[in-house]
Amino acid sequence: WLRRDGDGSDQAAAALRPGLERTRRTAPGALPNGWRVEVNHASMPDPADLARLCAAPRTILIARNAGAAPAGACLFYGRRALARAGAIGVWAEGEGVRVEESSQRAPRLWNRRWDGAADDAADAVETIAERP
Q: Which DSSP string corresponds to 67-97?
């Protein structure tokens, strides 16, 4: 998969990279600019857990089995947002983050938004600035 993603590293080197640390229900991680990525992969996420994770600013919360967005300052990707976006990529960019959604980046027949014409790749990138 590294080669298909355009990454020339071997598997041993890639495995040593910092990233998400998986626990039973979550996979937390930090970006170099202080943003946090919190992935909740519980089959029935506890709304109180999601609210606690979303309370911190500069946090991206991904919870594929959550319906409604919790109250808080985080950028939230739940069931509906992930169904629309497809796979997402997250990068630190200055004091903010850049989020790329695969459904916009590479139109495919199985993407719900595909209309037969390639979208402008710039439409697939959203940069989120520092939040107060």
A: -SPPSSSSEEE-HHHHHHH-SEEEEEETTEE
124-129: Cβ within 8 A, 24+ apart: 124/100, 125/98, 125/99, 125/100, 126/98, 126/99, 126/100, 126/101, 127/93, 127/96, 127/97, 127/98, 127/99, 128/75, 128/96, 128/97, 128/98, 128/99, 129/95, 129/96
SS3 category, 49: helix
> 89-116 pLDDT, tens per residue?
888 999 999 998 887 766 666 555 545 4
